[in-house]
Amino acid sequence: MAGYIFSLNDIQALKTLIQYGVYSTNLSHPKNNLWKIHHEGTFADYFSMKAGDNVYFFIERKIYGIGELVNIHFDCKFLNYPEADIPTIQDYKSIKNKLLLNQNEDSLQNRFVCTFKPSPFFFEMGIDMDDVLASNPKSFRMLRAFWKLSFIKIDDEENKALRDIILKRNEQYLNNTEGKFPFDSSLQKEIATKLTTKYTLSSNNVLLYSSHTDKIKHEMAVEAHIVDTISRNSKSIFGSWDYVSHQVIASPFKPIDYMDKMDVFGYRFIPGFDTISKYLLIEIKKDSATKDAIDQIMKYVDWINQEYTFGDYSMIHAFLVAYDFSNETIAYRNEICKRNYTKGRRPTIADVWENVRLIKYRYNPSTKTLDFEEV
C-alpha cells in the first residue's frame, strides 16, 4: 500500500489530528476567481488517496505513525463544504453548518479533508528523520526531498520501509495500553451525517477554472485531471493502474530546487499478487510539444529503467500529453524513442523498446473533462 506523510507545526496539532482522525490542508484563498498552480497541485494530491493507504505525521524532525485512510460512506477524501472546489470565498455564516471540519472562519481555507484511523496505533514515540533514512537507505526516494510541502505521497516500497522502522522502535507498546495516542471516532460519525454527493472530490471544476476555449492554462490542472481519472479506475487511454502519484523524483539527490520530477508516475501489479508488472510515465505540456519534450520523457524513461526495472524496458509504458504535436516532433519521436535491450541470460533475447505514445488533449466544456486522442 502507499503512504502519506503530513507536515505539522506543533505537538498539540498532532494530538488533535490523531484523536479525531481528520486531516485538512490549509490553503491560501484564490484570487480573481482563479485557481493557482499550487491549488491544483493540492487537488491532485487528494485525488490519488485511497482507503487503506497509510498515514504518518512529520513534526520537528520526527515522524509519527501509523494510521490508514478509511472510507466514510463512499470515500476517504471530501470537499470540506459544497463548492469548495470553486475558486471563490464563501460567506462563513451562511455555510458554517455545512462544513465537515469547522473550527472558526479560517476553516474556509480547509477546502478538502481526508479521514483516517490508527493502524494498528499512532505511537507516542516519533522516529528521527535521520534514523528513518538510515534504516533502509535504498528504499527512500520521496522522503529525502520532503521540503516546503504540506505533505507527500510515498510508494509501496518506501511505505513498507517507514512502517517497518516505526513498528520495530515501538514493538514494546504493541500489546499494552502505553505509548499510544488516543483515538475518538465521534467527529467522523458527525461527518457521516452530513455527507452527500455535493462533497465529492473531482477534477471537473479544476479544469473549468483553468480552461480557455479547448485549452488548459496550467499543466498542473491537466496533471490533476489525469491523476483523478486513473485513481477512479475510469476507462481512459492511459489504462488501469494500481498506484498513481505526481511530481515524483526522477534524478539523483541534489538541491531540491534542481530536482527533476515526473509529472505522473505509477505502476500496476500482477492481478492477485504484490509483484509489479508495469510502470507508468506521463509527461504533460499544456501547449504544443517540442523536440525538447521528447528528450525529457526519454530521460525519465531511462531513470525508471535504472531505478525500477533494472534493464527491462518492456515494463515501461510512457505517454507524452500535449495540446498538439508538429510533424517535426512526431518524426523526432519515431527516431529517438527507441531502446535496444536484452532479456534473460541463457539464452539472451534481444529486443527493441518503442513504447512512447503521443496523446492530444482537448477540453470538453459539456462534460467538464478532457478528451484524449492518440497521434
Shape: globular
Instruction: Determine the number of helices (DSSP H or I, runs of at least 4 residues).
Output: 10
Distance between the termini: 34 Å
Task: Please compute the radius of gyration using only Cα atoms.
Answer: 22 Å
The number of E-state strands comes to 18
Question: Your description of this structure?
Answer:
This protein is an alpha+beta fold and 375 residues long. The protein contains ten helices and 18 strands. Strands 1, 2, 3, 4, 5, 6, 7 and 8 form an eight-stranded mixed β-sheet that branches. α9 (291-309) links the parallel β13 and β14. α2 (37-47) runs parallel beside α8. The longest helix is centred in the last third of the chain and has 19 residues, at 291-309. It starts with a strand and ends with a strand. The model has no long low-confidence stretch (mean pLDDT 96).
What's a concise summary of this model?
With about 375 residues, the chain is an alpha+beta fold.
